[in-house]
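Handoff note, outgoing to incoming analyst
You'll be picking up this chain. Sequence as last confirmed:
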Amino acid sequence: MKTIQVAQKIREQIHEFMGIIYPRFSKPKAEFIWEMIYGIEASQDVKLSEIARSLGEEILLKKTSERLSRNLKEAGLGKRLNEIVAKDGARRVKADTLIVVDSTDVHKAYARRMEYLAHIFHESS
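Most recent structure output, in case you need it:
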């Protein structure tokens, strides 16, 4: 029962977020965005195969992955989404709103080299 409740809550949160997306995209593109957001949240992964698997479509997993991949290749999609989300977020920021920025990097123990690493300060015990 708990899994059903979590899935329902995810759907409600995505539905609320999609309120700013649907009016600015065609229906097929908005549905694709919904599927990607739901798939990432449901699978807790950003790999296309896992997102496709979480959608549970009754077609071959390969076909779902290919469709998602094809839609992701649309030029300017990411930029347009960023602009829409930033504009919506900007109207929510007031004079007393705190904006917290964490500029530290994700620790990757086995990475030999990574671009744009920031120094991470550690407290001495």
